[in-house]
Specification:
20% helix, 28% strand, alpha+beta, 5-stranded antiparallel sheet
Length: 230
């Protein structure tokens, strides 16, 4: 059987009374309904601090997040917790799993099957698989970029109907204007330049923050095509 554990991901458990209401007022996606969803925790200016998938486990919520960012995410959420009786901690009994054979990732069905379970052997090929589909994640790729420039609307990472979240004002204003002038794009290149966020020379790929009319060498998947050319 193919190894499935994504070793660069961690699982945080949020438990306590009103945990859904707590997270609902902070993140970009609607966590009051069906889960999982992909969401961002933004700065007040609407720039990405963290991205993660939110899962349900009974009354608890589980955050499928970047492992290297997990401790910082716990600290940031704790700032907003105030005196609520909510616990936010890593759950080492769970890991994030992935297989290309499936279609239930909330961002994009083509990303494959994703689930939580006990850790097993590390999977191979996830990074290239998602990048070839034009999907970015994690602080090195998304950090400090306006959420809609991270292609969040196209990847089901924002709800404009759920109510307030941190960074909503600027995010909603960009949406109302119906124009995102810059985008995070995956580019086939072995070179780095002023627009490069991070390069993966072993894959011949890089993530770049470009103007939406500067598409030379960029991977433009079908899910992004209409927004780029509109």
């Amino acid at each position: 059987m193919r190894p499935t554990t994504l070793a660069d991901r961690a699982v945080l458990r949020l438990s306590g009374e009103g945990v859904r209401e707590f997270l609902q007022g902070l993140v970009t996606s609607d966590v009051a309904g069906d889960l999982p969803v992909w969401a961002g925790l933004l700065t007040p200016q609407g720039k990405c601090l963290f991205d993660f998938l939110v899962w349900a486990d009974g009354e608890d919520l589980l955050l499928d997040c970047e492992a290297d960012a997990a401790d910082d995410l716990i600290k940031r959420l704790a700032i907003y917790r105030l005196r609520r009786a909510i616990t936010i901690e890593r759950d080492p009994s769970l890991a994030v799993h992935w297989s290309p054979d499936g279609a239930d990732d909330p961002r994009l069905p083509a990303l494959g099957k994703r689930w939580l379970g006990p850790p097993s052997e590390p999977a191979a090929g996830w990074r290239e698989y998602r990048l070839r589909l034009g999907v970015c994640e994690g602080r090195a790729e998304l950090g400090d970029i306006l959420w809609l420039e991270c292609n969040a609307a196209e990847l089901n990472g924002v709800s404009f109907a759920k109510g307030c979240f941190v960074g909503q004002e600027n995010t909603a204003r960009m949406n109302w204007r119906a124009k995102v002038n810059r985008r995070l794009l995956v580019v086939e290149t072995t070179q780095t330049g002023p627009r490069t966020r991070i390069a993966y020379p072993e894959l011949g790929l890089a993530v770049e923050h470009r103007r939406a009319d500067d598409l030379d060498g960029a991977i433009i998947p079908a899910w992004l095509q209409a927004s780029i050319t509109a």
